[in-house]
Amino acid sequence: MxxxxxxxxxxxxxxxxxxxxxxxxxxxQQTDSTRVxxxxxxxxxxxxxxxxxxxxxxxxxxxxxxxKKGQLLQSYGFVRGEExxxxxxxxxMSSLYGKxxxxxxxxxxSEPGSDKPSLLLRGRNPLVIIxxxxxxxxxxxxxQIASVSVIKDALGTAIYGMRAADGVLLxxxxxxxxxxxxxxFTSQYALQEQIKTxxxxxxxxxxxxxxxxxxxxxxxxxxxxxxxxxYRTGSSPFTHPNEDWYKRILNNxxxxxxxxxxIAGGTSSTRYFVDLDYLNQQxxxxxxxxxxxxxxxxxxxxxxxxxxxxxxxxxxxxxxxNLFGRIRNGNEPGASTSAVYxxxxxxxxxxxxxxxxxxxxxxxxxYPNNLYGQALRSGYLPSSNRNLGVDVxxxxxxxxxxxxxxxxxxxxxxxxYDEQIDRSKTFSVYNLKTDPVTNKTYYQKIGNDGTQSNxxxxxGQNRQIYSQFDLGYDQTFGKNTLNSLLLYSRDSYVSGSDLxxxxxxxxxxxxxxxxxxxxxEAAASYMGVDRYKPGHQWxxxxxxxxxxxxxxxxxxxxxxxxxxxxxIRASYGLTGSNSNAGYxxxxxxxxxxxxxxxxxxxxxxxTINESALADPNLTWEKARKFNIGTDISLFKDKFxxxxxxxxxxYYDQLQDRGTNGSAIIGNTLPQQNIGxxxxxxxxxxAGFQSKINDFKYFISGNVNWGASKLxxxxxxxxxxxxxxxxxxxxxxxxxxxxxGLYNSAAEIQAGPKVEGYNxxxxxxxxxxxxxxxxxxxxxxxxxxxxxxxxxYGMTAGFNYKGLDFSVTVNGVQNRSVLLMGNNTFEFQQxxxxxxxxxxEHHLDRWTPATAATATYPRLSLGVNTNNQAVSSYWMKNGSxxxxxxxxxxxxxxxxxxKTIGLAGIRVFANGLNLLTLxxxxxxxxxxxxxxxxxxxxxxxxxxxxx
Length: 946
Hints:
Elements: E1 5-9, E2 14-17, E3 22-24, H1 33-44, E4 59-62, E5 65-68, E6 76-80, E7 103-106, E8 118-121, E9 127-130, E10 133-134, E11 145-151, H2 154-157, E12 168-173, E13 179-194, H3 203-216, H4 225-233, H5 245-249, E14 254-266, E15 270-282, E16 299-312, E17 317-331, H6 337-346, H7 371-376, E18 379-380, E19 383-397, E20 405-424, E21 429-434, E22 441-446, E23 455-477, E24 480-495, E25 501-514, E26 518-529, E27 538-549, H8 554-558, E28 563-577, E29 590-598, E30 603-610, E31 621-634, E32 639-655, H9 662-665, E33 672-692, E34 695-712, E35 734-735, E36 738-741, H10 745-750, E37 753-754, E38 764-766, E39 774-775, E40 781-782, E41 789-800, E42 803-813, E43 816-818, E44 875-877, E45 880-891, H11 894-897, E46 904-918, E47 935-945
Parallel strand pairs: 9-12, 37-39
Antiparallel strand pairs: 1-2, 2-3, 4-5, 6-11, 7-8, 9-10, 11-12, 13-14, 13-47, 14-15, 15-16, 16-17, 17-19, 18-20, 19-20, 20-23, 21-22, 23-24, 24-25, 25-26, 26-27, 27-28, 28-31, 29-30, 31-32, 32-33, 33-34, 34-41, 35-40, 36-38, 41-42, 42-45, 43-44, 45-46, 46-47
């Protein structure tokens, strides 16, 4: 293919092809071979530490710049990108478990392409910023990540005004350096397996329990003795099937592959980093290439490209250009992945045979969707997602005018396009029937074999233009150091056909320290957004911080302690959040209503309805945040310790009024800025690293206590104190307190009445909390733990002569989960009238013979309003301890690999979710709904350096 190339940066031989390909020329850079060889060999034995400690004199990234770690007053956490590469996970956020104090993650699904865990930073959802620009492209490869930081207090985030009340997750990508060109290639292959899949009953046990449930409900059995015997023996598989649906349509393992190549280097005037990455993550569905010429498995394929270039145009003018591209292609069966997994819970093993005797798909009117057909004969649903980002910044040093003065400008363009393609098709199923007159059998056709669809739709399209202009001044006067920054930013975001959402801010920050001992910092933002009423769109968000480096005092140094750094710090400020601003909801909107006829002859006229009532006083949510902490390092920085206490008061939160009068006025009242909530907690982090000759080792960890409290929610008047939500944690579950199971009619007669239900033996008995003799909503109270959430993480490892090992453990305490729905209850009815699965734990149901040992209520069909009510019976201890990640690697000696022209070879094996200790027996502690199970991953790879 002919390519017309133009060299843009001759100094590094970097050329841009007209077809979009970046090519690195082989221009040699002369280096001292002995020095380079020594450097490469030292990299072989470097300590692969996962602790976040930075030496006090090192710079760490903060919003709009860097600060010295030893002078930092912000509440802050930091992890290097290299420390995340041992996690064989497609989503970058999944690599942060146990790494950063204050950051709590929950992986509710591992579905390829939809496996981003939920993130809570001090109980709230943080703003994600990548290379200084608000964006959330976190499905990227870790090889391009330089660091991930969390900025938690008002001092660190006030400069982002009404967008950062919930903290910031700051991601910085790698850049080149004045160093010889380095090429790194990594190849990885992994096997995935699903964790805690459901244990369904075989057809015999299912039919037996089904009859029992019918008897409990006062109905006749559905299966006779002959039916049960056929299920037990498997003698009539077409009329009495016993299908293991998991084995029929799912594989035990699924493959995942990833390949990465990155190139970095540069000269004193030009530096570059280029990264290419390919990920192929397969799902678990069985496929049949003889049946289909198209893919039916669910999968996720990702192609990412990044190029970060820094050029010194002059000695005082610096240009940076970042290019980022990402293509994500997905696929799933035409019935959809969620429908198939949901069908596994709603289709019992005896519902129908996969295939009838004539080879047709089995099914019936109650189960018209053959699961095998849904997985392999329903067509397919491909999807395509495209992202492109371009950042251009230029910095001008004005030191020739005023020493320490500079200006900087940044423009970032980002586009996002998501297309869903429908190539699904319907299929028929056949039910074996017997003609009552002739006694002959025939197949009843249900549904139709449709033609394949071929349509597409745009499911998401947005554009972002971000611009920023900085004026900075950094100077030292004797023992006084001043760092100041004034900036203007504008972020215009367009989603679909909506009008642009524009955030604008004029912000500033001033840092001062005297001789490295006494530290002070102030930050403020004057920020506005166009979603609020004109004249009420702007607000001021200030914050201050003070600190004292005791270890820099002369009297402290004279004491001759082993403490290298001892710093205390505190901050306080006001931040805001406009994430719930909505779409100009301060305006009153109207919509088309019903038509009516009048006059003679009758004429149709249209009406206009008043939409939800507007709130003209809508404003942003606010948070007053206090933080106090200390940073300590000892024994020549071998040991470090950090502690933070925070108290964050959120107010003007948008919420529905508890005393809502919508039913009375005939319209929906708007949410209003009335809510008040407090979050407080304690975060501790520590680490130690050292060596014994060639044996280098480290250990680090963090422990976090986080509590929340509803201060005001406009709660309606409640009869009893135990019913009140005010004063309890955010999201607290309320329900009945279970008091065992009824064992006899006498117990039922002697106990309180259940409103709207007549219990029978085997039903759940509830406590009558208000002692009025009736079980109803006035007996509902807080369920589960109300203690502060305790979560923690630990990473440890060693390196010995090229052999490296690391392990990451994370855990949670004081966590309660509610297990309800199809993965807990028996015989739940589907939309077409059939009854769903029964599971192994239903074998431990209550019967008169098992009354003393039963762990599950008596069985019934469909919805049981008493037994399936939200109650402590279904509230379980969700605490767990998990070996999240283990890696073992070996770097071959340089003397071995240099003979084949390589600078280094490292082979490694790592794993994800390898071991979990929990009281939960049936479900994974994170993916409790069985929507798409969590995964255990075994990964093997090799890294080559050139």
